[in-house]
Amino acid sequence: MRHDSAAIVLMLLSIGCMHETKPQTQPTPVAAAPETSTTPQGSKAAPATQGKSPASTSEAKAEPAKATPPAKAQPEPAPLAKTQAQPAPPAKAPAQPAPPAKAKAQPAPPAKSPPQATSPAKAPAQPTAPAKQPAAPSTLDLAALEARLKQTKAIGLMTKLSLKNKVDDLLDEFRQHHAGKPMPTVSELRRAYDLLMMKVLSLLQDKDQQLASDILSSRERIWGLLADPKKFADLQAE
Amino acid sequence: MITRSIALAQSLFVLACLVTPVAAQQDNETLKKDLTAVIALQGQPCGEVVSATVLKQNDYAATCKDGNKYRVYENEKGRVIVEKRQ
To answer: How many independent structural domains does chain B possess?
Structure first.
């Protein structure tokens, strides 16, 4: 009898422990979420809320990629990003292409020139850069993006199916556009593309921040693939 | 020894009875969030799914916080359909 009661007490204790451990598994991602999410969101929010010039946004995005040199001058990267952003518009989209240039400007070598012109005033901005370094966003092509989205557990099955439908719809619109139909214009396609990206990002940003930041950094690259008729045709042929 | 093993078996049974509902509840919560996202993606008013019922595979009935009811299913073409119910 004593053994029985001891076993029951033991089991009750283990049940109690079990309930505690379950919540722990969920909180950890939540706790980790703010850290990484704040960095990407911060970089995004900063330009919008603080009303900084596009230059400041390019700095914020350029820093994470530069990774190696922690002490960099903010003014330097900005002009570089701008100069590279200018060539982008000719590709197609009007004002929005600027961000793509940023994403591609990140890996660019210019990163090393800024350190020479470092000014002490810029030092405070550096702490944010190291925080982003671990998350070093990698660029994705469509196939990789598709694979990552399939793998992620941040999105439920039905949501994934729904997203796939939307991606297919958008690809159809691109197909029509490249076929010469006037209906979906580039700006309409861009709007639809941005909206879809926002939906995807909003679904991922809390539970799979790494993928969210990768998508964010690949956003313009993917747009480039879709908007260019030649690249799009290659994509469809694959 | 026998009494010990019986006690252990009993407690394991109790444990299993307690664990299963917890897991089922978690699954249900995941499903609710999934359906909430799907309904929102389709631009339908909902807010949050408060109850979800599995009708069959990839076919669900969802009740939203705002009182709206939907049937969310995958049709034969592979498209996810959100159908308002009354």
So the answer is: 1
